[in-house]
Amino acid sequence: MLNKVSDIGNYAVECAKNAMSEKELDEIRVRYLGKKGKFTELLKSLKNLPIEERKTVGALANKFKAELEKVVSERSEKILENDINNKLKSEVFDISFPGEDFGFGTLHPVTIVQKQIEKIFTDMGFMIADGPECVTDYYCFKALNIPENHPARDMQDTYYLENGQLLRTQTSAVQVKVMEEHKPPLKVIAPGRCFRNEDLDACHENTFFQLEGMMIDKGISISNLIYFMKTLLTKVFGRDDIKIRLRPGYFPFVEPGFELDLSCLICQGKGCPTCKQSGWLELLPCGMIHPNVLKYGDIDPDEYSGFAFGLGLTRLAMMKFGIKDIRYLNSGDLRVLKQIHGE
Ligand code: FA5
Question: In the beta sheet, which residues pair with residue 288?
Fold first, then answer.
């Protein structure tokens, strides 16, 4: 009986030592150590042996059982280690391989031009003001010398809100607010989004950007206005051969008022859908601030004068980047927007 136990034990231990996989080890576990395994059966059959033999055979069987358990557990660890090493060897990790493309974004064309103009004006000592997009009638119209029922209100189709306010139709809505908070000498620009209930076409959107500018001090004249407008356009386009025309323009908040048009850079002034075949694009209305507006801002018009302008920022971005239709800019179509980069 002792020989039988030794043979089974040695064979089982040898099998466990040579097992090549977890599956093979499991089979050995079940065959020798399981509920119906050979060692379990052997220990059960001890009761049929004489007492002396029962002790020696039992001790030997328990010794092999313990040894087998130990060998199975050690072999299991070794098999796991081999598996990991083999996997590491087969999975080559190339640290020079290019990473995954996360698709970095770019600045929106209007933002690119806005930042450029902010730099131009802050370099000349202007500050940047910010105003809300929802404003009261007072700041958007009344304080700009446009009383209720004034026909000039029809020039801009306004979105009115249920709370009695409105979506600003022009960045000029910041003018009097700034005058209330800062006193001359005053040099300020205020870029921002405007809203008008427009019929859309290649150069009209219902949501677009303007950039307001204002300078108030003693003795400010039209010469100052023309100097800053010229500097603005020359620096934005990086050349001084841009063709412009200045003509009288009516805005109740300036006197005199001008329309500054840009020769269309899409068709070089020949006429195209972007400029409605006229060869010119309305871009930069401006003028000398009306004395009534200064009074609304609590600034004495007998002591101070100033100029103001309302640049069509979205249209300027179109001209700078050769974008033929304004509707591309709000379309969210990344195929269009990704083609445009800043300097
Ligand atoms: C105004 O909004 C005046 N507040 C400008 C101003 C400011 C005049 C200070 C005098 C002194 P206008 O409605 O013309 O003016 O708009 C100014 C510019 O905004 C236009 O020349 C044009 O370039 C741009 N613009 C106006 N409406 C739209 C629109 N629907 N879509 C895109 N750009 C527009």
Answer: 307
